Amino acid sequence: MNKPVTNAPVSVSLPSSAVEDLSRRVGAGEFATLDEAVTAALLELEHFRAVELVGGEAAFTALAESVEVEAGLGEVDAFEFLHDLKAEYRRQAETRESQG
Hints:
With 100 residues, the protein is an all-alpha fold. It has one domain. Helix content is 69%, strand content 0%. The protein is built from 4 helices and no strands. The protein has helices at 16-27, 34-53, 57-71, 78-99.
């Protein structure tokens, strides 16, 4: 993942099949640590949720491409884009609540 993650201790229970899969991926060199593998899996889940929220992969791609064209940004990291988009919507909602 391209963005540094701020460490925040969290305890979770995972099914043994998930632990085995993540451990196998670490062992295969896909990730350096189990923490990195879990973080990547959670970011992937966040991406899938965002895709679902905007109406599927085609809609998500179209949205990302329209932002790239409008802003002249070129290629955009999907996770960073989603994080920024969610932060903007949260800011707008907080502004509306404070004015209402």
